[in-house]
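Lab notes, practical 5.
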Amino acid sequence: MTKKMTKAETQRLASLLQAKQMEVSNALRNRDEIVVEKASDDIDQVQLMGERELAIRNLDRDSKLHGQISGALARIAKGVYGVCLYCEQDISARRMAAVPWAAFCISCQEQIDRREIEVDENPERLAPAA
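Output from the prediction step:
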C-alpha cells in the first residue's frame, strides 16, 4: 500500500519543482555550445562536432525535463498531482520525493520503459481534467 502525500509534502515539492523549472529554463537559454564553428584542423573539427552534438543532446534532455516539470505543476494546480496518468492509482510519496515530476507509478513506468504499455509521447496531455 502506498503512502499518500500530505498537503505540506505537495507544497514542498511544488516549491522544489518551481526552483528546478527555473534552473532548467536558464540552462535552455544558453545555446552558445551549439554554435557551428569551423576549425582549420580536421581533428579539431571532429572534436567541435562532438561537443556540439553533446550540447544538443543536453538541450533536448533539458527541454523534455522542462515539459515534465510543467506537467507536474499543472497537475498540482488541477489537484491530480501524485496520481498515475496510466492506472490512476496514487504514486507513492517516496517516488514523488525522489522524482517530483513523475507522471506514472513505479509499476507503470517500468512497463513503459520495457515498452509493454504505450503512452502518448507527451503524457501531460493524458492528465485528467479536475
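Observations recorded by the TA: The chain has one domain: 7-126. The helical segments are 7-29, 42-78, 93-98, 106-113.
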